[in-house]
Amino acid sequence: MELFHLFSAILAISALFAYINKKYIKLPGSIGLLLAGLLLSLVVQGLGAVSPEFETMVEERLLQLDFSEFLLEFLLSFLLFAGALHTDLEKLRESKWPIMIFATVGVLISTAVTGTLFYYLLQLLNYPIDYIYCLLFGALISPTDPIAVLGILKRANIPKSLEVSITGESLFNDGVGVVIFISIFQVAQRGLENVEGSFIAELFLKEVGGGIGLGLLIGYIAYQFMKRIDHYQTEVLISLAVVMGGYSLAQIFHFSGPLAMVAAGLLIGNQGTQFAMSKQTADYLTKFWEMVDEIFNAVLFVLIGLELMVVEFKWEYAVTGLITTGIVLAVRYFALAVPSYTLGLHRTFAPGALSIMTWGGLRGGISIALALSLTPEMFRNEIVAITYTVVLLSLVVQGLTIEPFIRRISNRSLTQLNPTDAH
Known about the structure:
mainly alpha; 17 helices; globular
């Protein structure tokens, strides 16, 4: 019951903050809730100066709701399925090669380069961390967060083809990033000398291939059930069974749960709504998952703000996080540009697309959750604090400026294409 009361309190706070933001402040929903959560954290810490027992009680309650476990083993399945359900598969197919390459090669490049630069930055700042743990940081911070990206890009006036590329990449690179993180985590735990290359390759193939395969299988089974009835309550229930049962199966078989949810969501959201449902059922199903998406997004971003109370901060972590944010952005552009220009993918993009994809590649709760899953000997406190700083700066600074950034890039591209218009 303790967890029920805690979740109820967070949901009530989320609803209150969402109302205040919508009525008065009018920030993008995700960012408004994140800032509200941060403000509440600061208020609780301020009250802690008067009543330390109150602050300790709030921190203990938050620690009861293990953020890493809550996001990775519960919220993530719903949010990824909902995001994939509303993604147009036809438009996704048009950008399939860039999405596939950015979500695999791009994430691998980013993990290696970010981890290496992070290692040397810490050496320079005089608190070194072993290279393998720096690579772990590179793996957890490299994937863009589909939850943050989908939530914030809804408001941005962005070309549809580019929006599909960014959201499609974020849906898949999240699953791939988690697999890379797990692989490096295994190496860090066992020691490089005790891990064979074939083990990593097998783990990667099993997680990725198994996850996508399982998602398609359970999505197809659900599709066949939905095709044989026309009862929207039952079909919504089937979609819930796909998410909860499918994610549980993925964990049992050690497949990638995130990729399974993306595959199942794409199949049901496209084939299912077109060929297995009446218009009324498709409407109810999509609206139900829109509501699930909105509610859980609200809870997640308030929780990210509240996590400030349980993250051990020192001023040097904040400074390191600020510098690291610049590194992460620069490497993000590099990891997109290398495969783009090497394979000629850039020819299919609109002018300024790589810059927009870089600035629109937000980091979010998944990075924090992965950092919190580290063991204490992996420099967990330092990596969590630095990750938290990078995520906050990414969500607030990039999230709040993505619309003007897109306008500026678009206007500059138009000026370059029509130089006479500039006079």
